[in-house]
Every structure is written in C-alpha cells, then in structure tokens.
Amino acid sequence: MTSSAPHAATDARRQLIDFISADAVFHGDFTLTSGKKASYYVDLRKVSLDHRVAPLIGQVMIDLIAQVPDVAAVGGMTMGADPIAAAILHQGAARGLAYDAFVVRKEPKDHGRGKQVEGPDLAGKRVIVLEDTSTTGGSPLKAIEALRKVGAEVAAVAVVVDRATGAREVIEAAGVPYLYAIGLDDLGLT
C-alpha cells in the first residue's frame, strides 16, 4: 500500500457522501420497511447505478471489508445488494483482488435448477452479505439463511448506509459481525 492510499480512501468516501447527500437523500413523510415513519428516505439506487458513483461505492466498500480475512464472494438480496456487489467485484479486480459476486433471490426459482443463490459455488467459502441501506436487518438475515443452506460461511454483513434503526443489533444478535461505511452523522441526518 502506498502512502497515498489512505488519502485516496478518504477522498472516495468524501465524494460518496457528497453524492448520496445530494442525490439519494429525500426529505418528506416516508413509511419504512419496518412500518415506522421517517422524515427522510435514503434511496441508494439513485446513486448505486450511476456511472460516477458505482466506482466510489466499490472503493469505499472494499476498504471497509478489507479487515475481513479470506472472503471469496460478496452479495445479498436482490435488488439492493446487486449494484453494490458488482461495484466491489469490478473495483476489486482493478486492485488485483479476487472477490466474486452472488445474488440471493427472495425465493428459490420454481424452474430450471431451482436455485435461490446465483453465482459461483459458495460451499465452504467465506462470504460477506451486502446491503445498500439498513433498516430492520431482515434482508441480510434472509440472505444469511439462504447462504448457510448452500454451505457458505457468512463472515460479516456490510452496509453502505446504516440508518441506525436496529439492524446492527439484529445482525449481531444472530452472531454475525456488522460493518457499515456511512452513518447518519456523515449525511447530516441525526
């Protein structure tokens, strides 16, 4: 790692926070997945599918998960985790890292091979479950269950934006470490 790497990581994170704040935070009256009301909504798909922002997400998330050893693949519940996993896969490849990606369907397919987890064979491999924003922790828990059924070892859950609404506690209570890149303070939402 060169001496400019920490600066580059900080710069990518700062740029990502700026994009999220400008383009993915909406103010008003919203009902969250949990049924709770909120005065703001973070819609990460507004930026995770943007050509300028996806590489930043990949860089920031790779820096976040670098502390987790021996990770073979990243992914989570479709749809929110898909662009995050793709960003990590591509930015990882650019850095010479070998992160594969996977997708977890809500339900197993009722045709073809009937799979719920798509991508490389994950049996016996360490994986990280991704989520764009966290609210209840329900999506990562569902992904964890599906991944364990195929023999994967879930090393952590990694979230781009943590809403501080209890997901961390739920995930950690299930015995899985919880990591996040950006909190509400970073977005000026506390």
TrEMBL record:
Family: Belongs to the purine/pyrimidine phosphoribosyltransferase family. PyrE subfamily.
Binding-site residues, 5-phospho-alpha-D-ribose 1-diphosphate: R105, K106, K109, H111, E131, D132, T133, S134, T135, T136, G137, G138, S139
E.C. numbers: 2.4.2.10
Cofactor: Mg(2+)
Cross-referenced NCBIfam families: pyrE
Binding-site list for orotate: T135, R163
Gene: pyrE
Quaternary structure, from the entry: Homodimer.
Protein name: Orotate phosphoribosyltransferase
Keywords: Glycosyltransferase, Magnesium, Pyrimidine biosynthesis, Transferase
Taxonomy, superkingdom: Bacteria
